[in-house]
Design a protein that fits this description.
By secondary structure, this protein is an alpha+beta fold. The chain has two helices and nine strands, in the order ββββββαβββα.
């Protein structure tokens, strides 16, 4: 997987400073599958939410994978979805960057027409589809986890 033209440009330089001015960690959901961290740094405020996504394939059994959702106040229009290195043939984290508005809209109705597409799947799930020259990856998220992440980003932008 790789992100392409439709994605917002990455900032030049690091997206988060090394010295934290403040850090708050919130663990949500009764199963403990989601953790949000808000960090105020010299480069701005960042939010990271660790969630589990289900890989959708033809196989009737699904595989859950850990995914990090990231947001920085320095890039207020972008969201980053980071897949762990063990899922990549290059053994590196795979990061997709796309508009935050696409994630917001996809919670309510099918959205996107390029490399990333998002749509609701029933009342409690959201599907995110990633297109690259190597193929297509389809992941299913709990909509509550995505909404929680968005709430944290809104709180960050109000305080920044």
């Amino acid at each position: 997987m790789s992100a392409t033209a439709e994605n917002p440009p990455a900032p030049s330089g690091p997206t988060a400073g090394t010295a934290s001015a403040a850090t708050a960690t919130v663990t949500a959901t009764p199963t403990g599958t989601s953790t949000a961290t808000a960090t105020a740094t010299a480069a701005g405020t960042a939010v990271e939410e660790r969630v589990r996504a289900r890989v959708i394939t033809d196989d009737p059994l699904y595989r859950a994978i850990p995914v990090a959702l990231r947001f920085t106040a320095a890039e207020p229009l972008a969201v980053r979805v980071v897949f762990p290195a063990e899922l990549s043939p290059e053994d590196t984290d795979n990061e997709w960057v796309f508009p935050l508005a696409l994630l917001e809209a996809g919670l309510l109705a099918p959205s996107g027409s390029g490399d990333v597409r998002v749509w609701p799947c029933g009342r409690v799930q959201v599907v995110v589809e990633f297109h690259s020259p190597e193929g297509v990856a389809v992941l299913q998220f709990d909509s509550a986890a995505l909404r929680r992440f968005l709430r944290h980003t809104y709180a960050t932008t109000r305080t920044a």
